[in-house]
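COURSE: Structural Biology Practicum
ASSIGNMENT: Worksheet 4, Part C
STUDENT ID: 0417
INSTRUCTIONS: Below are two proteins. For each, the amino acid sequence is given first, followed by its structure token string. Answer the questions at the end about the second protein only.

PROTEIN I
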Amino acid sequence: MTSPSRLDRLLADRPAELADAIAASRMVFRVAHLLEARVDAALAPFELSMREYLALVLIADDAVEPLRPSDLSTTLDATRVQVTRLLDGLERKALVQRSPAKEDRRALQLALTKAGSRRLKEIAPAVHAAYQEGWSAVGPKATATALKVLRTVHAGLLPEEAP
């Protein structure tokens, strides 16, 4: 007979609704960690991490306006120091360039280099395969349902906008 997990033991005396909320939250954290590890493994042959890949994708999306480091910080939930280090590494790899923003020369804007654009096209299939493999255990319909649930949770956690 298998003994209950540590989490199950810790939640045993909690009301079921609270125990489910805690367990679901812990599971989201664990799944996110495992998915990131899977994507990092897919990117290892390219000597990139998931954060670097996400930065490249975000920087490539410059249809409306070039991305700024502060925007990247917000989207990646990273500190300014973390984003600076990330961009320093991507510049060393000649994948990204920082330049003064056209409308405000005190600000920086980000752009992919030609090598960065080529690299992004090269690595995207490996990342997409890792994402699909990560969700393959539940299939497309359950993945779509999970996305709806996670979007709802996300929206409920966002701070309310002041009137």
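PROTEIN II
(use this one for the questions)
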Amino acid sequence: MCRGCCCGTKKKVPGVDHKAQLARLSAIDDHSGRPVPVRTSKCLGICFQANVVVVQPSQEGRVAGGRPVWLGQVTEDKLVEAIDDWIFEGGPGLSPLPAVLADHVTSKDAKKPKKRKKPKHSKSAKKERRKEREKAERKAAKAARKAAEKAAGAGSDPKPEKPKKADKPEKADKPEKGKKSKKGKKSKKGKKKADASGKKK
């Protein structure tokens, strides 16, 4: 049995009477009435499966092909009773493994399972959902307030329109540059005639 840093401690495995469990396993006898030796180990290496128990085969069981069987999470009285019954009947190599122990079979090379992702009902997920809900409520309240203000503005008297500026009188068309009026042409012609008549004289 492992009784090191993790196995056999209330901190790692609470709710188990570890001393009573060790005493119970130490009191096991085989089918011939001989007490079964129980050794404690400081650490068997697979602490995540505390408490760990390794059942070694007897000499007859090893000859029959039995090998050490590693059991993990041995924390219930019914499991200790099943180990007792199995050893009494012969143990590894001489007696089949009890069904109740089948799910507890492990090995010294067992790997710790990866941590699962937090489920949706975890505290952090609840906090995230609450934030999203509050954000949506604020947005809806803002939209409702804007709609109310718009409705209140439509019901009140409309603002008086500013008076339009009086239309300015259209400016008289100015003669285009480079063009001279007919009057100007006539006066120049008369001037030329007068000059010509003066020369003749």
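ANSWER KEY EXCERPT:
Q1: The radius of gyration is 54 Å.
Q2: The mean pLDDT is 80.
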